[in-house]
């Protein structure tokens, strides 16, 4: 009643490999790009019409198709709601986390937007995986690490102080020693945001431990760049 059946059938057939050979080699990418709009039009009650097509696109051999889906998975999660997201999108999301950097960046750019839609227990499962974003296929891809630091500043609000201390603190310290100055700069802001998180939640002991760690690691560093980092962290704070 929402979309004429022949039109929907035509759209779903865009994932047919034969069409890519005879119609347009980019047809699967166009299909992936349009999918959130089609899902919104159909409504979550008709998601079953698109589910198989989505999974087919998510495993497409062309990374550009997977990348397109990675950039829009947070929008699809809003459309589908928490139950369908947990059942059908989380497995795809997990696959994208292990994909090429070109695909992972799509997930990373909207990591906060996706994680905030998950239930707290499901969200905690990603704490350990967040540190995997520090490692990239190409170490010169510094914008990837910059994006990670930016997202972590937002993500802090989703976790309690103990989780931040146990998991996110390590990532922040690693990024503060990055070879690229832009990454270090945004990481100094992340460190300060972590300290603010601790003290705003009355986790004073965690805050003090973290400050002492910063002093040992940077203030007393044998290299001038480490001592400079400590000065910049104080400046940002």
Automatic annotation (TrEMBL):
Gene3D superfamilies: Leucine-rich Repeat Variant
Biological classification of the source: Eukaryota, Metazoa, Chordata, Craniata, Vertebrata
Annotated keywords: Repeat
Organism: Dicaeum eximium
Name of the protein in question: PP4R1 phosphatase
Gene Ontology, cellular component aspect: cytoplasm
UniProt GO MF annotations: protein phosphatase regulator activity
InterPro entries: ARM-like, ARM-type_fold, PP2A_Regulatory_Subunit_A
PANTHER family referenced in this protein's UniProt entry, alphabetically: SERINE/THREONINE-PROTEIN PHOSPHATASE PP2A 65 KDA REGULATORY SUBUNIT, WW-BINDING DOMAIN-CONTAINING PROTEIN-RELATED
């Amino acid at each position: 009643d929402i979309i004429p059946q022949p039109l929907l059938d035509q759209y779903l057939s865009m994932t047919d490999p034969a069409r890519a050979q005879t119609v347009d080699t980019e047809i699967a990418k166009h299909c992936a790009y349009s999918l959130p709009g089609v899902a919104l039009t159909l409504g979550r009650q008709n998601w079953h019409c698109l589910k198989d097509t989505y999974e087919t696109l998510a495993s497409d051999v062309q990374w550009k198709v997977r990348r397109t889906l990675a950039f829009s998975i947070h929008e699809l999660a809003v459309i589908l709601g928490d139950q369908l997201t947990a059942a059908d999108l989380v497995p795809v999301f997990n696959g994208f986390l292990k994909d090429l950097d070109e695909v992972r960046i799509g997930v990373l750019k909207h990591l906060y937007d996706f994680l905030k839609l998950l239930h707290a227990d499901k969200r905690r499962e990603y704490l350990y995986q967040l540190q995997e974003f520090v490692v990239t296929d190409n170490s010169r891809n510094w914008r990837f690490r910059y994006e990670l630091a930016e997202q972590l500043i937002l993500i802090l609000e989703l976790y309690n102080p103990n989780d931040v201390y146990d998991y996110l603190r390590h990532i922040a310290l690693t990024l503060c020693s990055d070879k690229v100055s832009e990454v270090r700069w945004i990481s100094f802001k992340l460190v300060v945001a972590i300290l603010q998180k601790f003290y705003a939640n009355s986790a004073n002991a965690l805050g003090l431990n973290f400050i002492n760690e910063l002093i040992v690691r940077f203030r007393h560093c044998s290299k001038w760049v480490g001592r400079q980092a400590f000065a910049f962290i104080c400046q940002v704070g």
